[in-house]
Amino acid sequence: QLLQKKMYTCEVSVNVSNFSEQTLTYWFVLTDRAGKTAESKHLSLAVDLTEPEITNEEHYWEQGTEENNKYIYFSLAIDEENFGEVRIYDTSDVRAKWKKICSQLVNGMCTKKVGFNSGHHEVDIEVRDTAGNAIARHISFDVN
Question: 79 has which bridge partners?
């Protein structure tokens, strides 16, 4: 007689807010109707609930000089142990999409020169860590 395999799923949600900045080890033990058990691999998870921080909040971007004002110079000092990326979104662009400007920090800095077309620009800046925590800032400027 041919046995029919059935697939089951199980979703687990655990509040880890009391374990911020700690490492948790977790695993699962499954038991079938016959009492046989199977244990999953033991996995470690670093709990990160803190948002990234821009430490030079007042001076993290600058527009080029008059003859070269189509460039924005981003220079973000970021305090984040599990840094993920910095990306921007120009809401003024008719084909707007998120654009990654940094995926690693050099001495705690994300530095990038980005060119923009003529006109008024409304730009969202997002700093994200690998745990999914993020902060956002908004800037606006005009390019001749």
Answer: 53
Over residues 15-50, the pLDDT tens digits come to 988 998 899 999 999 998 899 999 999 999 889 999
In angstroms, the Cα distances linking 48 to 105, 129, 134 are 18, 9, 11
Cα–Cα nearest to 123, from 89, 100, 96: 89
Q: Report the SS3 class of residue 143.
A: strand
Q: Are 101 and 137 in contact (CB under 8 A)?
A: no
Each residue's pLDDT tens digit, 94-106 = 899 999 999 999 9
Distance CA(57)–CA(62), nearest Å, equals 12
Neighbours of 22 (CB within 10 A): 11
User: Can you read off the two tokens belonging to residue 24?
Assistant: 């948790």
Instruction: Fill in the amino acid letter for 50.
Output: T
C-beta of residue 53 within 8 angstroms of C-beta of residue 79: yes
Banded pLDDT at 54 (limits 50, 70, 90): very high
